[in-house]
C-alpha cells in the first residue's frame, strides 16, 4: 500500500513470496507505456524475484498491482492475465477519499472470485 502511495499516478506491481507465516514483498517495475492505467511486470525482474523465492524456499503467495483512478476490482485485462491460479491477486485502489482500499481475488478456472482479507 505504501508503494502505491509513493507512485499515485501509475500502477505499481510486484510479487509476494511466503514461507510459513513470513512474507516478503518483491516490487517489480511496471513496463507498460501507459502505466497510469495498465500494468505489466518486467519479465527480467519477475524471473529474478521467482528465482530468489526458490532460493529462499518460498512459494508465490500473491501478485499485486494498484489502480490509481479505479476501484480495487479486477479489470477485464486483469482477469485475462491472471495466469497463476495458486496465487492471490491483490488490487490496491487510490480512488478513495483518504483511505486506501485493498481487495483480494483468486482465479478458479475461468472465474475470478473475491476472497476475504484478514490483515
Automatic annotation (TrEMBL):
Acyltransferase as a keyword of this entry, yes or no, is no
Upper lineage is: Bacteria, Pseudomonadati, Pseudomonadota, Gammaproteobacteria, Thiotrichales
Native source organism of the sequence: Methylophaga nitratireducenticrescens
So where does this one cross the membrane?
A: none
InterPro entries membership: JAB_dom_prok, MPN, VirAsm_ModProt
Q: What is a single molecular function from GO for this protein?
A: metalloexopeptidase activity
MPN domain span:
1-111
**Name of the featured protein:** Mov34/MPN/PAD-1 family protein
Task: List UniProt keywords, sorted A-Z.
Answer: Hydrolase, Metal-binding, Metalloprotease, Protease, Zinc
